[in-house]
Amino acid sequence: MWAILDSPFSRFAEAIRAIKLAVDLNGDVGNASKIIGFTSSIPNEGKSTIAASLALLMAQVGARVILVDCDLRNPTLSRKLAPNADCGLLDVIVGATPLEDAVWRDASTNLAFLPAGIKSRLANSGEVLAAESTQRLFSDLRSKYDYVLVDLSPLMPIVDTRATTALVGSYVCVIEWGCTTANVVKRAFKDAENVYENLLGFVLNKADINRLGSYDPVGGNYYRNKYYAQYGFTE
C-alpha cells in the first residue's frame, strides 16, 4: 500500500489516481463529503490494499480523508496500520471512547485511520454496522472529512457489506484478475442487489500486464508503450 508514496510514477500509482478521478467525477456538485466502501467477492483479492492506497494518495494531495476499518471479522488494516491500538470503531460506536481519541494519524501524509477496535471475534458484526449509533458516527465523519474510505468485508462469506447501504454512498468492488471468475462475481452480487445499485465500478487487481495485453490484440500497445517513459512512467 505504500507504493503509492514510494513509487509515484509507477503503473500502480497511476491506476490509483484513476480510481480517485472516478470517485471525484461520481460525486454530486457541491457534495462536501464522499463515503466510499471497498469490497470484493471473496477474501484476499486486495480490497484493503486498494482502499489504503487511495486514502494515502488523497491525504498526500491535501484532502481531509479518513480510512475506516469496517471489516470487523478480519480487520487486516487494523493489524497493519495500528497493531497497538487500545480502542477503535467499536469503542466509538458504544460511546466508550471519543472519536478523536480513537483515530490514528500517519505523520508523513496526515492520513487519519480509525481501526476496528476488535478485542475478540465478533459474531453479530452485521448488526453493529446497521445500528443507529453507527449511522450517527458516519454522519459525524461525513461532516468532518472530504472523503471517508471504508474497508468492508467480502460479499460472499458474510452479510456485513449488505448492511452498510445506510452508511456508504457508493461501492468499489476489487476483483483478483486471473483468479476470481465472472460467475463468482455474479453470484456475489445476486445476493447483494442493494450494493450493486450503488456500485461505482470494479477494479481488476494483481493484473499480469504481459498477459493482459494478449486479451486485447488491437489495443495491446496500450499496456506496453516505450514512449510512456517520456511522462516519467516507470514499472
Please characterize this protein's 3D structure.
The chain has 235 residues and is of the alpha/beta class. The protein has a single domain (32-209), classed as Rossmann fold. Helix content is 36%, strand content 15%. It has helices spanning 3-6, 11-26, 47-60, 76-81, 89-93, 99-102, 125-130, 132-144, 182-190, 193-196, 209-212, and strands at 34-40, 65-69, 104-105, 112-114, 147-151, 170-176, 199-205. Strand 3 and strand 4 form a beta hairpin. The chain is globular. 38% of the residues are buried. The mean pLDDT is 91.
Task: Give the topology, please.
Layout: H1 3-6, H2 11-26, E1 34-40, H3 47-60, E2 65-69, H4 76-81, H5 89-93, H6 99-102, E3 104-105, E4 112-114, H7 125-130, H8 132-144, E5 147-151, E6 170-176, H9 182-190, H10 193-196, E7 199-205, H11 209-212
Parallel strand pairs: 1-5, 1-6, 2-4, 2-5, 6-7
Antiparallel strand pairs: 3-4
Q: What is the correct CATH architecture?
A: 3-Layer(aba) Sandwich
The CATH topology, please? Rossmann fold
Indicate the radius of gyration in whole angstroms. Answer: 18 Å
Mean pLDDT: 91
Residue windows where pLDDT falls under 50 for at least 5 positions: none
Structural shape:
globular
Structural class per helix/strand content?
alpha/beta
What is the CATH class? Alpha Beta
Question: How many structural domains can be distinguished in the coordinates?
Answer: 1
User: Strand fraction band?
Assistant: 15-25%
The percent range for helix content is: 25-40%
In N-to-C order, the SSE pattern is HHEHEHHHEEHHEEHHEH
Distance between the termini: 16 Å
Q: Say which CATH homologous superfamily is assigned.
A: P-loop containing nucleotide triphosphate hydrolases
Q: Taking strands numbered 1, 2, ... along the chain, how are they ordered across the largest sheet?
A: 3-4-2-5-1-6-7
The main pleated sheet reads as: 7 strands, mixed
